[in-house]
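Follow-up to my earlier ticket, as requested here are the two runs.
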Amino acid sequence: MRIAIVNDLALAVEALRRVVRSIPGAEVAWVARDGQQAIAQCERDRPDLVLMDLVMPEVDGVEATREIMRRAPCPVLVVTASVRGNVGKVYDALGCGALDAVATPRLGLGGGVAGAEELVRKIATVRALAGDAALPGPQALATGGVAARAPSATPPLIAIGASTGGPHALATILAALPAALPAAVAVVQHIDAAFAPGLARWLNRRTALPVALLSAPEPPRAGRIYVAACDGHLALGADQRLGVSAEPRDTLHCPSIDVFLASVARHQPGRAIGVLLTGMGRDGAAGLLAMRHAGHPTIAQDADSSVVYGMPRAAANLGAATEVLPLEAIAARLVALVGPRT
């Protein structure tokens, strides 16, 4: 695995070099001292992963991530001195296509590196995604039958999954939904658990609908948006309440979009719509297929509007999407599918 380092501080670069060299099968591809150099280097020699600082002279990490994803797309992991101190830039970078964010390890006494464990774990996750792990079968996800489509007081449920580039895509869709939406919206975004509360607040400022992090089981309510808390899998239970489950434990992502969409396929008694947005990997494709098999309309984002056309492409290849739409058209289609408030 060839890993590029983008950082203007010599001590940070050295700490990152040592972390990369400690990982079996990993090597430093090249080092750039600012965002402009990183863009040019990616176009000349595309690495398997870029470790991107946020605060740099000339071109910062947000703009560099945006241009890399436009000109020479490759996985970008934000590595910055203070994640919490740069939270606004972190969300901007995630919206431009960065996979995740982590604090920069520090050189310690005796030549050791402190704080490297989290970075090593996230690099392992990126490597697993790049390996395109086997897609679980929809039958395994949708066991237990499908809820009857009997009339009920449960409002329609819009179930959305997103990953790389997801924050921007989510903001675009949610901002275009009306305040009187007669459906509940539940979102699984691949993001570190530490950023989930901030993501809910960030989205709340961009839509007329209230956005909340789901912290305790509750029935979905029309006109509300629920964001997965990332300390377990978001799932709709047999009691028609949204909650968090520790099972299954062997998924690459937690929360898993596949697990969530499959639970909606099993337990939503009325109308539901599945939506799979931009993202690296294949999570959500089998779950979206389970929803389609259960008789629900399903939407995948198209290639041109996706930052990374991985998850939606996997869904399209499976025949899981009843419609493939550009990002700007999805909100209007959702409004049409849920129908007027009754």
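Run two:
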Amino acid sequence: MKNGSEDARKKRHERIRRRLSGVPERPRMCVFRSDRHISVQIIDDTTGKVLVSASSLSKEFREQGLKGSGVPAAKVVGALIAGKAAAQSIEKVVFDRAGFIYHGRVKALADAAREKGLKF
């Protein structure tokens, strides 16, 4: 056990994933938050394919002149994922917080995605 808090998060994520799954009509939107970056993927679990992804490392994010992974960055990544999802005609998703607390950056990303039209 390297890091107790990371192990606890992974256990929470496993518990969440037991009852949460993405289907073609409502794919799963999974958020990952690190110390330096934040990323999100929309996944169809029936095929195991990533349909859309956005990150604070992506070219679109860097073009907006932002750096880091704070709340402003999370809002931009949430807006990016919503725009990309709309382009793929994805309107409804299942939100997977991946064991992270729904607070701060995770909440900011979710709120920004909702504002741009994603429903969850």
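The only thing I checked on run two: The mean pLDDT is 94. Let me know what else you need.
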